Automatic annotation (TrEMBL):
The chain crosses the membrane at residues 12-31, 37-57, 78-98, 129-147, 154-174, 180-198, 205-220, 251-274, 306-324, 344-365. Residues 8-362 form the Acyltransferase domain. Keywords: Acyltransferase, Membrane, Transferase, Transmembrane, Transmembrane helix. Residues 383-407 have a biased composition (Low complexity). GO terms for molecular function: acyltransferase activity, transferring groups other than amino-acyl groups. One of its GO terms (biological process) is polysaccharide biosynthetic process. This is Acyltransferase family protein. GO terms for cellular component: membrane. It holds the Pfam family Acyl_transf_3.
Length: 413
């Protein structure tokens, strides 16, 4: 079986997740009765993304065995398109006001620089950017665990974050670290920490500082701390599944963490959304988990090319879809004032434009940036001075780094 076939199921899951998020935002504009109420279809897609990230990101780091190579790949994977979408959102802001949750000061700028938006209670220029906050927290935590050589206890971390989600929900109702300074300080520390990660001398210290900072922000400064901890539990659950597959970890933490995540909003102070009420929340989690397990069960099958292609452009679809959607009423008027057939035509046209734009941004922004990142890694690794891995070579996974996909949710979504 070729590498592309082995990993096609991950691309397929990313494509499914991206389309679910698009449907969550599009259906209320087109025909609200089609939006399910027994589950949150957008959160379903996001949970699928988080499970995929949890499954593949630690494998990518361990497969490379080199923190600098991993972060070169991550930065060139995430930031080019992210910056383009920031520019698009600012341009759309000429017609549609930018959300009031986006500060018009240094805290807003630095929160976008670090991507730690949601965990420093700052809104993103594009609504879907909030998930990138948790992707970044996960990367920072995983890197810190890796440099200390304690990264293989993924199941325990999943259970620990699940328990933290339950406890945080009971105790914390609002950020303990309010105001703009968490975004400012974390932005500065993030930039300095990235410089440290790419240095040989301060790499371990930088990784530990960034990892600790990420957890402190997750619990002390995020919009909803229990939710952030639950997301980290989901992601480490994906990692625990990977460990179990490779025979390096048990399966029971997956079920324990799932139960803790499922009950985490039950007694939470900040749990007023309709989609975190037990029937909806649990249904959403079960369906997302079932989708991940179904994809894994079918991983040896040949997936339809269109599904895999949707996975390849899923990061673009995820980030680009909302700014484009905000322009639809500007160009065509309020959709709900139109007959159903006209709304259906507009929705079909929107999806066509979205896929075309996403293909273009993948082709001309994402793919070239990823190729550049890979060239830089190869250049450093083959240079006369060398670029010896700073991680333990014994920690490498069973997948060689060349066989790993370029990202998950956005590594997301």
């Amino acid at each position: 079986m070729t590498t592309s076939n082995r990993l096609a199921w991950l691309d397929a899951l990313r494509g499914i997740g991206a389309l679910a998020v698009v449907a969550e935002h599009l259906l209320p504009w087109v025909y609200p009765p089609l939006r399910p109420t027994f589950m949150n279809i957008g959160m379903y897609g996001v949970v699928v993304f988080f499970l995929v990230s949890g499954y593949i990101i630690p494998a990518s780091l361990e497969g490379r065995g080199d923190v600098r190579a991993f972060w070169t790949s991550r930065l060139f994977r995430l930031y080019p398109l992210y910056l383009v979408v920031c520019a698009i959102a600012l341009l759309v802001g000429l017609w549609v006001p930018i959300r009031e949750q986006v500060p018009r000061d240094a805290s807003g700028v630095l929160a976008h620089v670090s991507m730690l938006l949601d965990v420093v209670h700052v809104g993103g220029l594009a609504d879907p950017m909030w998930t990138l906050s948790y992707e970044m927290v996960f990367y920072l935590v995983v890197t810190a665990l890796f440099v200390k050589g304690v990264h293989r206890f993924s199941g325990w971390y999943a259970v620990a974050f699940g328990g933290l989600a339950v406890a945080a929900g009971i105790v914390i109702g609002a950020p303990w670290l309010p105001g703009p300074w968490p975004a400012v300080v974390s932005g500065v520390v993030f930039v300095a920490g990235m410089a440290g990660l790419f240095s040989g001398r301060f790499q371990t210290a930088a990784a530990l500082v960034l990892g600790v900072m990420a957890v402190v922000l997750l619990i002390g400064s995020s919009y909803v701390p229990w939710f952030g901890a639950a997301i980290l539990a989901m992601m480490f659950t994906g990692t625990a599944i990977y460990r179990w597959e490779k025979g390096t970890g048990p399966l029971w933490p997956v079920f324990a963490a799932a139960v803790l995540v499922a009950v985490s909003p039950a007694w939470a102070i900040a749990a007023g959304w309709w989609w975190v009420q037990p029937p909806v929340w649990i249904t959403t989690l079960v369906l997302a988990g079932a989708t991940f397990w179904a994809g894994r069960a079918l991983r040896h099958r040949t997936w339809p090319r269109v599904v895999v292609w949707l996975g390849l452009i899923s990061y673009s679809v995820y980030l680009v879809h909302h700014p484009i959607l905000r322009m639809v009423p500007i160009l065509f008027g309020h959709m709900m004032s139109k007959p159903v057939w006209e709304r259906a035509l507009l929705a079909a046209g929107y999806l066509g434009v979205l896929l075309l734009v996403s293909w273009a941004t993948y082709t001309w922004v994402e793919a070239p940036a990823q190729r550049l990142g890979r060239r830089l890694v190869r250049k450093r690794q083959t240079s006369p001075a060398g670029w010896p891995p700073n991680g333990s070579s014994s920690s490498s996974s069973n997948w060689p780094s060349s066989s790993l996909p370029s990202g998950a949710a956005g590594g997301s979504g």
